[in-house]
Amino acid sequence: MTTQFKESIETALHNPNLTGALGRFSEAYRIGRAKAYEGIDFEAVRDQIAEIKCSASANFEALAEQFKAQAEGRGAKVFRTSDPAQVKQYILDLAKDRGVQRVVKSKSMASEEIHLNKALEQAGIEVDETDLGEWIIQLAHQTPSHMVMPAIHMTKEEVAEVFSQEVEEGQAPDIPKLVKFARAKLRPKFLAADMGITGANIAVAETGSLVIVTNEGNARLVSTLPRIHVAIVGIEKLVALVKDIEPILTALPRSATGQLLTSYVSILSGQVPNPDGSPKELHIILMDNHRSDMAKDPMFKEALQCIRCATCLNVCPVFRLVGGHVFGKTYTGGIGTILTAWFDELKKADDIQGLCIQCGSCVPLCPGKIDIPGLILELRRRLVVEKGQSLAMKAIFGVVNNRRLFHSMLRMASVTQKPFKQGRFIRHLPLFLSDMTDFRSLPAVAAVPFRDQVKSIVQPKGGEKVAFYAGCLIDFCYPETGESLVKILNKAGIEVVFPDDQTCCGAPARYNGAYEVAAQNARDNIKALLAEDVTHVVSACPTCTVALKHDFIETFKSLGVTDAMEAARTLSAKTIDFSSLVKQLVDAGRLTFKEGEALEKVTYHDSCHLKRTLKASDEPRELLKEAGHEIAEMYECDTCCGMAGSYSLKLPEISAPILERKLKHIKETGVSKVVMDCPGCVMQIRGGLDKDGATIQTTHTAELLAERFL
């Protein structure tokens, strides 16, 4: 990341107005959204939207031609172009020919995308945004920070100051009064405008209709009062049929703002009369700007299913901290990163793609069923292909891909760490390494790794065998977790084998775009883990489990690797996370809990990959309850702790406040122990609690359950 970009992150993080506004909104949003979807089958709605939008993107040319024919048959003029410069020129030529001096605009991300306002102003045309948020940031000489709420980053005091400086002095920071003031100042602009410019939320090919939704009614005034109406519509807004409107309008307000329906839904079909009875000019510009190229890409065509609801921004733990002026360009947040790479250029997304923490919070809530984190990983891969790996990345992954060297260095670290080790922690590191221990203590490397300890464990022989994939943290930092897993499975009569040739799961390389490195890790682990006939491959690390079960296959797909695919699928079918396997064994009667002992109350932290990718959130809770524990659920139990592997090392300034929020919620439960299924989360939360001086214990589910079975 560039120095300038890092500085912008620091500036955002130290802006209490920004973080406060976004934090309050994100909390309220979750409640409002959940309430708005009560009685609605969200999965069915998003299935419909994904199907509608996917079908449309596969038929852009035919739909665009049908839309053009229908709209022009109703008196509109339709202009199609792939070039943003031609969009601006068309509007400038139209304005010059019709003597346009004043333009009013309703909210339009497409016009922001092509920087239309600047072009109009340079031509001497007065341009006024009429959406309240857009007008505020126009007056403040800023860009939108959110796709739905462009001025969410500003306080009422800041808005009052902008109004006082740019419009009329003496405005007080009173929201109703500020809204009334804005309405009074904007109304004459609607009446005086020669041209109104809007976007559109949906464009229906069947009838040539535009669907525009707003909460303020300004789009109706913009499209009705001026004698000329220009609508700029990205071709991704095209749908085939009128009936396709319904599922999109069901999801859009609920997902965007937690409303059942937006205040104003306008469906415009062709030319209508002006207030004086003369025919209104309606010009519809269908803009491509690489959208059709995107539709042809087998991976990124999925991103065209976006309905611009901004859910991915609203639930993103990183966006909540830094806002859209850091996390995005014209389009912000996770989806904005992807759109920037296509509508602008790949290298423009270089810095912002690194902000995605890969927690997956956006995936289950996206109405378009877009795997935003997965597409951002693909961006990273393509960026690495385009510009190559940095020298630091080459050096690190060169070591990781050499299993013997990597493991030798970890063993050596158990010796060289002694000057910094305090008990089980490293609390301070010197010089340029000091950032690593600023906000959390690090785990000390174990004197004896699990791979050595497991050899001395006496296990049942001659029965079922399960291979254990430990991952680096359990193997070299938390061998006690591995011992607990072996102990539990042994009680079910299962022998746990530990293939010595297993190595890094490749997640660090994959998450940094180094797919070739990840592919080699995958090959090495597939060979090691399938060398012996086992019923399952179990891991007590969700990130590693996801790698074995999903990522190896996806990495090979991205690289066009075919020779290892069958083995990767075999491994995937055998792979299971620890809690799910133990729950199956309990349900089958192969493991029985001790009874009659009341155990301490605990709280549970859902690891991102376990809940959202592996869909296992009930299993660990049910095991803890059956073992005798009462669970005090923490607020935002499934929100990322900020670890995310190497993310916490690359962006500690973001990882730290995410962790701080998590620790706050843990403490608020009043428990003495927090439990989780991920060693990475253990590292982050245990280290944070130690640095904080808190007495709350952090433990892996396996360790807590190990003594609870007969």
Task: Compute the number of helices.
Answer: 34
The main pleated sheet reads as: 6 strands, parallel
Tell me the structural class.
alpha/beta
Separation of the first and last Cα atoms: 53 Å
Overall mean confidence score, pLDDT: 93
Q: What is the CA-based Rg, rounded?
A: 28 Å
Proportion of residues in helical segments: 40-55%
Task: Give the spatial strand order of the biggest sheet.
Answer: 1-10-7-4-2-3
The best one-word shape is elongated
> From the structure provided, what is the oligomeric state, counting identical versus distinct chains?
single chain
What low-confidence regions span 5 or more consecutive residues with pLDDT below 50?
Answer: none
Which percent range describes the beta-strand content? 5-15%
- Number of beta strands: 20
Question: Describe it for me?
Answer:
The protein is α/β, with parallel strands linked by helices and 710 residues long. The chain contains 34 helices and 20 strands. The longest helix has 21 residues, at 16-36. The relative contact order is 0.08. The mean pLDDT is 93.
